[in-house]
Amino acid sequence: MDDVMYSNIMQALWIGCLFLPGWITAQPEAAPVIDANNISQLKPATVIDFGALPAEAGEIVNGRMLVDDDGARMAVVNRDGAVVFLDTAGGLIAVAPGPVTDDGLAATFMVGAFDTTGDQFAAVRTGGGAYYVNLYLLDEDGGHRDLRIRSGDSPVDIWFADAAVWLEVVPLEPGRESYLVEIPLEDFVPGEKVDIDPADLMVHAFAPMTDKDVVARIGRLPAPLTVTSTAEGVVSRWDLTEGVRTATAIVSDVPIYGAMTPDGRYLAWRDPASRALHLLDFETGQDEVVVALNGQYMPFILIGAQADVILGVHLNDHPQVTAWETQTGLQHELGPYRQCQRPPDMVTLTNSGRMLVIGCDTGLEIWQIVHDES
Known about the structure:
By secondary structure, this protein is mainly β. The protein has a domain at 1-30 and 98-205. Helix content is 4%, strand content 44%. It is built from one helix and 30 strands. The protein has a five-stranded antiparallel beta sheet with strand order 1-6-5-4-3, with helices on one face. A five-stranded mixed beta sheet has the order 7-8-9-10-14, with no helix packed on it. Strands 2-30-29-28 form a four-stranded antiparallel beta sheet, with no helix packed on it. The chain is globular. The N and C termini lie far apart (66 Å).
């Protein structure tokens, strides 16, 4: 494919992004922050059925979703690799296709993230010996901007920081260490094809690689925060953007599953054998057992913004939402979530702490604090 053809395709995609009347969405009334005082009132509030969305949304068969800090906008990906933007009520905001590779195929969606305002969304796609970084502008102008990096390396995470998009990248070549890529937002030029030579990328070291004793890293933590552990239970919190270790603590086991408060102070975690659910305070270094799990498997752990409540979804393969108050260990059985054809693909709690979203093959279920009418 020559540059003229590629430029024409990119221009067509930029113009052809489907913008709908709901592109600018009214902000919903904020639900209360989920905490220990109101946790018993956390209930299903909205169900978004993928099969009921307008035809423009395409076929969506995976509940993997990205949600902005306040939960006003959500993004899922359809079978064609287009990003489908939804509002909290399930209204279709926009459908944004991705780039086409040199062999004429749609690039494969890998990871995505909203910025802190929810007005920008960045996505990474791969294909044809390259990876693509797409910046979607979720404002009244709409549109998207695209970069192509001709490299076989694989970005595995993406986030916004310091007026730039950051990537965590795993090299194709065995033995090479993971690294970070910083792409200034000003490099995303509207309406133009931008090819970047890998040699011209702004590359940074992946800080946790400096600790050779690390044996585990907790997944599903929102970058740039990450947490690692040694076999001896030395737990480290890292800021990937700054490239520094920001806190350490010693615990009784190796945390491999967990969730962190948005400010990075508290970590809710469990050990590999699911013996107990813990709460670690990085500011004091104190680690407390919240409740004994006695081997019950919990694939999704979430922590309230105030660290006074921990949520568990699909505990021991049951389609239930469970919560524990961290001060007392008091358990709340909050009820079943909508069953799908398989366990949830993703569960997330918004950074605002106001909304729990459970995604599976048939749709999304949103849980919020619902006050009983008296």
